[in-house]
Inverse folding.
């Protein structure tokens, strides 16, 4: 049986992974939007 303290490091790692992926997706989205704006302003 898993105890709460056993899950904590696991949860921390999962959150870190999710956050890293979110950061990448956000950066990609911002980049695409900036490209669109640059094209539209020509």
């Amino acid at each position: 049986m898993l105890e709460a303290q056993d899950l904590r490091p696991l949860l921390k790692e999962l959150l870190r992974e999710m956050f890293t992926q979110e950061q990448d997706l956000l950066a990609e989205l911002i980049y695409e939007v900036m490209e669109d704006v640059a094209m539209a302003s020509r």
Summary: The chain is about 90% helix and 0% strand. The radius of gyration is 18 Å. The chain has a mean pLDDT of 87.
